[in-house]
C-alpha cells in the first residue's frame, strides 16, 4: 500500500498537466501512486497522462466524463486509490520540491490523523504578489495532533481540498465524496472536518497554486453561483444532525455566510436570480443561526442583519452605493484626434449584426485562414457583409469583388467599432475595444513547433522582440474562440495564450484546398509559377531565426539542384518577414516568397524541404514527401525554444548537411517506404481535423450560430483524397 495516492483532475488543463505530473514524479519521496483523471481515452489530457504512465509505473490514469465535473473526477480518483493518505492536486498546479518528504515526516511525528492541513502558495499567473492564504488560519493551531474543538476556526470550508492530506480509510468510514456541482470543496471540507476526530497541521508550503489569469471559476458570473447555497445547506444540515457544539458551529456558520454574502454583494456574479438567491440564503440563515450568534461589526454586520431580516431592497441599496454594476470600456488608441473621436462616437452606436471584419498577418493581404473563412462565408452566409482590412501597399492583393478597407483609415476604425464578428490570424490593433456582444475569432496561422506567446518569456532573444507580455495577454482577453488544427496545438495555445476563450478543434480552413483541389488546379498553379513541365518541384521553406538579422538561405540552392538530379527545380519561399517583393527566377531556383498564397505553392511542389517551419504541418495534409534539414537544431532549440522534439518524431528523413540532403533526393529515399512510414505517424498526430471542411465548420458555428453537434463530422484520415502531385514521387 503506497503512502500517498495523488489524484489529479485534468479537464481543461491539458496544456499544463505535464508540469503537474512531473512535479510529483520528481519528488525525493517515492512511495506514492499518481492518478491522473482524464476525460476519455484519446483526449489531450489522456495522451499526456499516457506518456507519463509509459515512463513510470506509479502513474495509473483513470477516466471520468467531463459532465461529472471536478467532483466526479476526484471521486473517480478516490475509487481507484489504494494509498494511506489522499492528496488532491489541480492539473495546473504543482507540488513544491520536497513536499511529500515533509508530509511523511510530519505524519510520522503526529501519528495517524484524519486530516493533515498544510500551507499553499498562491502564485499570480503573470503579475502580482505571491501569497500564502492558509498560513494565518493554521498559525494559531495546537502543536501535534488535536481534536477539532481545540481549533474551531479550522472548519474546512475556508481551504481548498488540495491544501490537506486526507486519511483514505477515514473518508471511506465517513462515506465522504465530493458533492456534485460547483463549490464542491466547501461541501467536502465542511463534511470532513465535522467527522474528523484527530487533526494536525504542517506549517510549510506543499502546493504551488497557479492563479488563473481569467480568475477563479467560482467568481465568474452565471447560474452556477446558486450552487453555493446547496453546499451551505449540506454542511449546516450535517452540523445540525451531529448537534455540533456552539464553540464549533459559530465559526462554521460565520465562514459559510461570509462566502454567501460575498456572492450576494457582487452583482456581476449573479446576472439573474439575485432576489431568489437572497431569499433562499435568508431562509438558510434563519434556520441554522446558532443560538447566541453575534454578527461581526462594520458593514459586514449590516449585511448579516439585512440577510436575517430578509430585506432584499435594503440590501440591494447598500450594495449599490458601494459597487459599480459594470466596468467601463478602455479608451481606444487610434492615431489622430479626429480618428479617436470618430471611433468613440461609433462605439456608442449599436453593433451591426451582419458585419464581419477580417485581417491576416497584420494587414499583409488577402491570405491564410481569414481568407478561407471569408470565401466560405460568402457562400454559406451571404447576408453577412464581409470586409477585409489590409495595409495600403497590399490593396492590390485583394481579389476582385472582395470589399476591403485600409488599416488606420477612418473607415477601418468605423468598421471595427460596429462589427459583430472580428476574425484575424494575428491580433487586431491595441486600441480595438472588445464590445459586449461582439465575437472575436483567433484563427492562428500555423501549428506550433517553436515556443509561442508567454512561453517565450524564458528565451531572452525572443522575449526582447516580443515586447510587453502584459499587452499580449490583454489582446488575448478579447478572444471568444481560438481555432486549433490538432490536439497538440490546443494544449500549446492553452499554455501560451491563457484566457477564457473556447477552443475550436475544427482544422485550418486554409488547408481545405489540399483536399478539394484536383490535378487541373495543380497543373495551372505550376504553370503560373513557371515550373518547367516534367520537373520535380522541391519547395524549400526555411523558418525565421530570431538570432539572425536577415534572411540567410542556409543552402546553396543551385548546387543542391545540380547534386539532386537534372529534373529538380527549387521553389524558394522565405519566411514572410523577408518578403521584399521576390527575387524572381535564377537558374533552377524560382523565388515564390512574394506569392500571395502559400497553399498554391504547396500544391505546386512535389516534395518539401524545411527546417523548423510550421509549413510542414500544413504540407503533410498532401501526403507528399517531406525532408527536415536540421543543420542547427541544437542552436535553434536553445535560442527559440520548442514545444516538442521534432527529431524524435519527424515527418520524413532528417539530414544535417548539404551532401546528405542531395543524397536522399538522388537515391530516392526521400520518398521511400521509411519516409512514408514517418509521414504517416506525423499525419496521424498533426492532421486529424484537416479534412477539407474546416471553413464550413467555422462559418456554421461562429457566423451562423449552429450547435457543435450539427456541424459536419470530420472525415477520417484514411478516407481523404489529397490533391495529386504532378511529378512521379519515386525515381527509378
What does this structure look like?
It contains 27 helices and 22 strands. With 732 residues, the protein is of the alpha/beta class. The strands form three sheets. It has an eight-stranded mixed β-sheet with strand order 3-2-1-4-7-6-8-5, sandwiched between helices. Strands 11-10-9-12-13-14-15 form a seven-stranded parallel β-sheet, sandwiched between helices. The longest helix is centred in the middle third of the chain and has 19 residues, at 246-264. The radius of gyration is 30 Å and the shape is globular. Residues 321-332, 577-583 and 728-732 have low confidence and may be disordered.
What key phrases describe this protein's structure?
seven-stranded parallel sheet; 27 helices; eight-stranded mixed sheet; 22 strands; alpha/beta; 732 residues
Low-confidence segments, given as residue ranges, are 321-332, 577-583, 728-732
Radius of gyration: 30 Å
Roughly what is the average pLDDT, rounded to an integer?
90
- Span from first to last CA? 62 Å
- What's the shape? globular
Report the structural category: alpha/beta
- Which bin fits the share of residues in helices? 25-40%
What is this structure's SSE topology?
Blueprint: E1 4-9, H1 14-25, E2 32-38, H2 44-55, E3 62-63, H3 69-80, E4 85-88, E5 94-95, H4 99-110, E6 115-124, H5 134-139, E7 164-167, H6 168-173, H7 184-195, E8 199-211, H8 227-242, H9 246-264, H10 274-288, H11 298-309, H12 312-322, H13 337-347, E9 352-359, H14 368-380, E10 385-390, E11 404-406, H15 410-418, E12 419-424, E13 439-442, H16 460-466, H17 469-476, E14 481-484, H18 487-496, E15 502-505, H19 513-516, H20 519-529, E16 536-541, H21 557-564, E17 568-572, E18 585-586, E19 589-591, H22 598-604, E20 607-610, H23 615-619, E21 626-629, H24 633-640, E22 654-655, H25 658-666, H26 673-686, H27 694-703
Helix pairs in contact: 1-2, 7-8, 8-9, 8-10, 9-10, 13-15, 14-27, 20-22, 21-25
